[in-house]
Amino acid sequence: MTVPDPTPDGPARRCGLVAIVGRPNVGKSTLLNALVGQKISIVSAKPQTTRHRITGVRTRGDAQFVFVDTPGFQTRHGAALHRTLNRTVRAALADVDLVLFVVEAGRFGLEDAKVLALLQGEGAPSKPVVLVANKLDAVRRRTDLLPWLRSMQERHPFAEYVPMSAEKPADVERLLGILEPHLPRQPWFYDAEMLTDRSERFLAGEIVREKLFRLTGDELPYGATVVVDRFDEEAGLRRIACTIVVEREAHKGMVIGEGGERLKRIGSEARAELERLLDARVFLELWVKVRSGWADDEAHLRSYGYE
Ligand code: GDP
């Protein structure tokens, strides 16, 4: 029998980084949104997590789940899982505590296999991997699922096998309960109260960051960040200026794109979403700047609002 620890940071508490991986369209974003309970629930990143973009935090009972994005899985173009990318993905997965490998229940195709391969073999991180067999509601004959689950057992020694629907709240809660024992016992990274404290200014940076990562997909290397330089409120209008800071000159080109197309798109998508979220007109200016070495420099990290 375990006795709950009375001290807030005592051994009863669990906290860990959780990566959600899987080929496009299996329901990763749906699952993340359901797990986190709101679209964005993010605070500044902690040192443990500077390699990752935090996509959400969920605190439930004694456990805090910190969900992170993994480059290579953000992209909608799953074809690009080439060798160098594999290395990046593996490095990124090296410091998470738990991996959710999402597939569609009853299905396992080539694209799924490519993603699973990243979690296996030489150089693969030895993390517990939970098989999330999503879209269970779309499976007509549940009896077919047993042999399928057995075949999945042969593909990988998954820590858990969870057939479920990301669209069913009860299933999502059950999943959290299953994941909890796999988080390491350690103090929470985030003060549960802090998670709700999200300013509009902060939100602006997060939305630009989301678009930046989504639209640069696999190409954008680690180390890119977004700084909100200006956030002014005028009657029904927000004037926002952000700088996208990249580590190398070459990365700048990736963000800007041919003829500035990509940066334009990042800006227009971010603006549209911010207008919806803030219910106001948004004037958004984006700049791209190179700052080498910042990722290793704590002082810089702090000045960029990471601490
Ligand atoms: P991602 O590309 O892996 O992030 O997948 P999305 O979260 O965008 O989901 C892809 C599609 O699957 C969307 O149309 C979702 O509505 C749908 N979807 C996600 N979860 C479920 C589920 O549990 N059941 C069903 N039937 N559809 C789902």
**How many DSSP E strands?**
9
Q: Percent range for helical residues? A: 25-40%
Class by alpha and beta content = alpha/beta
Largest sheet: 6 strands, mixed
What's the mean pLDDT score?
80
CATH topological fold name of the largest domain: Rossmann fold
Strand order of the largest sheet: 2-3-1-4-5-6
Shape: globular
Distinct ligand kinds: guanosine-5'-diphosphate
- CATH C-level class of the largest domain is Alpha Beta
Contiguous uncertain segments of 5+ residues: 1-6, 39-50, 74-81, 294-307
- CATH architecture descriptor of the largest domain: 3-Layer(aba) Sandwich
How would you describe the overall organization of this protein?
This protein is an alpha/beta fold. Helices cover 33% and strands 23% of the residues. It has nine helices and nine strands. The model is unreliable at 1-6, 39-50, 74-81 and 294-307 (pLDDT under 50). The structure holds guanosine-5'-diphosphate.
